[in-house]
Amino acid sequence: MRFSIKGEGQIRRSLETRDRAEAESKAMEVWADAKHRAKLGLRSQAKRFADVAQEFLDHTAQAVARGERNKSQAHNWALKVNRYLVEFFGDRDIDAIGQREITRYLEWRRNYWISGPGQNVEQIAYQRGGRTVRRRVPPQLRRPPSPATQRHEAVAIKALFRQAAEWGYVQPSAIPHINVPRVIAKPRPSFEASEFTRLEAAALARLEEEFLHPSVRRDRLILYCYIKVAAFSGMRPTELKNLNWGDILDYRERRQLPLRDRDIRIRARGKAKSRTFVAMEVVLPVLDMLWSDWVRLHGGDPADKDPVFATTTGARLGSVKTALNGLLAATGLAVDHNGVRRTSYSFRHFYISQQIIAGVDVFLLARNCGTSVEMIDKWYADVKLERMSKELRPEWKRLGGEN
Predict the structure, then answer these.
(1) For residue 61, how many C-alpha atoms fall within 13 Å in the half-sphere facing its CB?
(2) Is residue 185 included in any domain, yes or no?
(3) For 388-401, what is the mean pLDDT?
């Protein structure tokens, strides 16, 4: 049969029979169903979930190419959609998926790596640089997803169904409502001032050891500088990775001046946003060390687009994770007092904590760090109490009246 629906053009459909009477009967049913769906604002023919999911991921990739969506978020969505959602809903018509099916999916997802399809999977395959790479399933997957993970995946599910509704594959009322556990605010793994002093001293001592191979000494130099810049600027690890010499405003022009006549403002670029902020002046001599290292290796000054944290070839340094973990373990600082493992992000938490304790206005601090007052209040409430210690110990008037 062949018919037209406004907004969809001409549609051809096989009735899968050679009997004319049966074909005419089926044609009337198809026509009536298509008209009914059109009145509901739906496409004339239901689409498989897997097809809509691929269309959604293609649409998201195009948004990334146009600079309208975060690349990292789109990548994570693709992983979640292909591994979990397509595996569960696959060939089902997307407009037949209701709240009950979503609820069943969420339970299936919580048990995926424990008693579900992933329990016997030993390796995960993914694409990197155009080739397939395999790695062992990390131990942390062998437990229910954290509340934060569940929230991130809920965002992806809603985004997919919301886009499907805009395309007319489902009604807006079909966008699922997902209840996920609340993320409990816990203090971020930071450093006490004495702990950071110990870590900094150890990093410097390891750098100054005698008889070190030049490559080892340089690795330790980079780690020492990374720690100092991170701890006294509050930059996120991604921002540090993306940092170019041109992002340190006026540094090149004022580099030869005495430290007292220099200032430091940095243009930080993260995954999707950028900001210009003020760092502590102690960062300046550390940057001078990194500049001199570049000149030593390459025989000339770095260009504005060259990375501040670079390999010996001048390429952008990917991570200091291995070197940092070794230093943290050697100094007994791998975990904080709550047993939470410290990472390169801990230096940002140290910076924010120290600024709060020093009495820096929380609004200015939030603007400088590219976050919100609400987030600082949520994650650093215990530090704020420390800052308010004097206010919490007022001089009480004599109880019971004067003697």
Answers:
(1) 9
(2) no
(3) 68
With left for phi above 0 and alpha for psi between -120 and 50, is residue 154 left, alpha or beta? Answer: alpha
**Amino acid letter, residue 198:** R
pLDDT digits (tens, 9 = 90+) for 339-380: 889 999 999 999 999 998 888 999 999 999 999 998 888 787
In a domain, residue 80? The reply is yes
- CATH number of the domain that 263 lies in? 1.10.443.10
| pLDDT tens readout for residues 239-290 | 999 999 999 999 999 999 999 999 999 999 886 678 999 999 999 999 999 9
Residue 154's pLDDT is: 93
21 and 95 share one domain? no
Q: Do residues 161 and 299 both lie within one domain?
A: no
- Measuring CA to CA, how many Å separate 359 from each of 304, 352, 353, 354? 35, 11, 10, 9
Do 11 and 151 lie in a common domain? no
Determine the pLDDT at residue 177. Answer: 87
- Burial class of residue 91 (count of CB atoms within 10 Å of its CB; 0-12, 13-18, 19+): exposed
- Total number of domains constituting the chain: 3
Task: Tell which phi-psi region holds residue 13, choosing left (phi > 0), alpha (psi between -120 and 50) or beta.
Answer: beta
Say yes or no: 383 and 325 in one domain: yes
The answer to whether the pTM exceeds 0.70 is no
76 and 159 fall within a common domain: yes
Question: Rounded distance, CA 35 to CA 6, Å?
Answer: 10
